[in-house]
Hints:
Shape: globular
Bound molecules: protoporphyrin IX containing FE
CATH architecture of the domain at 89-287 and 326-398: Orthogonal Bundle
Oligomer: single chain
Number of strands: 10
Order of helices and strands: HEEHEHHHHEHHHHHHHHHEEEEHHEE
Largest sheet: 5 strands, mixed
Amino acid sequence: MNSFDTIFQSNFKRGAFPFYSHLRNTDPVFAAWENGGHTTWIVSGYEDVLELLKTQSFIKDQSKVFSDSGRSNDLPLETRVFQHMMLDVDPPDHTRLRKLVQPYFNPKRIQELSPRIEVIADQLIDEMKAQEGSVDLIDEFAFPLPIIVISELLGVPSEDREKFRRWSNTIVSASDNMNTGFQEEMKEFINYLTLLFAEKKKSPKEDLISNMILHEEEGEQLTEDELYSMIVLLIIAGHETTVNLIGNGIYALFEHPDQLEKLRMDHSLIETAIEESLRFYSPVDFSTARWSDDDIDFKGKRIKRGDVVLASISSANRDERKFDCADTFDVTRKPNQHMAFGYGIHFCLGAPLARLEGKIAFEKLLSAFPSMSMTGKHDESNWRDMFLLRGLKDLYVELNG
Ligand code: HEM
């Protein structure tokens, strides 16, 4: 069983679920570690996580707690970019920023992308068919599909996806944002965006970045820093999450052959299977940080000013008080009120897009390769070594196995 001493070490993901269950039953608001006199708390039960994500007693903007947190225009843009993301600010800034991009992600508009997403999925499947031997489903399908979609939506060249993959990987894997490698990569990312924005200003198109630039130029709705922050956030969110929904979901099906068979026989179960994949192997393991700007009593614990509180989304989604047979993977599960997309005002903006991509991915893969099977050694050491997210390093399959 894991302890939080091992949380940053390799393969924490492997023993995470028994550990979460232990936490829920013994210490549901758990003082995980101390840093500079401040405690980081992990909240693990479903109802408590719901309350944490709903309440505005805890805040996102740490500059309101620490006057020396370095929110200053003197800092380089590659640092400032992390201070203006909608995910890290509170109302009214959060409300204004979210309102600007919300129209691009509403369910009706996302549904209109369906034919294009199907074409992209078909192309990737044709490319896989042309390969010999086993194929890495992550590299060849689960990764490129959401990337091409988000690149087209934003208006960034999808040929540059390997660069974005590197940059977003650096960001989500960073335990210390100040290390030099991180700063260098961020500088490169920002320089790339600066050139891209200049090009869009010269010849705007019908894409999200061109429209955001118009808002920035009007100067009332979006500052230049916020423009950079918004695009960095959308690129990271688009690169690091849906790939894990597709990869983790297909992996869970291989792990549970009876459920895979059920789905193969009846594709109308794909929607519930997607929801169950989101619950069972939640792509976002922990919420982002919430800060306490006062001494607050939360569920019997004294959370001091400056402490950090994290919601364990994966743990909440396996809470046996909320879900019958919570550790059972059931593609027919209904209702399934998981919290894989968070809750409250920061509820995932991209949820309709992620769900649609997941649905198309499952449908296309099951139709094109009805006897696909997993190859190679697959134990749980295959999880990538990341704290916040849960995703596989690779997933080798025999397409007609
Ligand atoms: C399966 C895929 C995805 C999962 C599981 C997921 C999960 C989440 C979660 C849990 C949060 C809330 C974090 C918190 O409150 O600390 C969140 C927020 C967010 N997500 Fe996603 N996400 C996914 C896909 C996407 C996509 C495709 C996009 C868009 C490109 C996106 C954009 C965002 C944004 C912008 C926020 C911040 C919203 C706000 O602060 O109001 N996500 N996501």
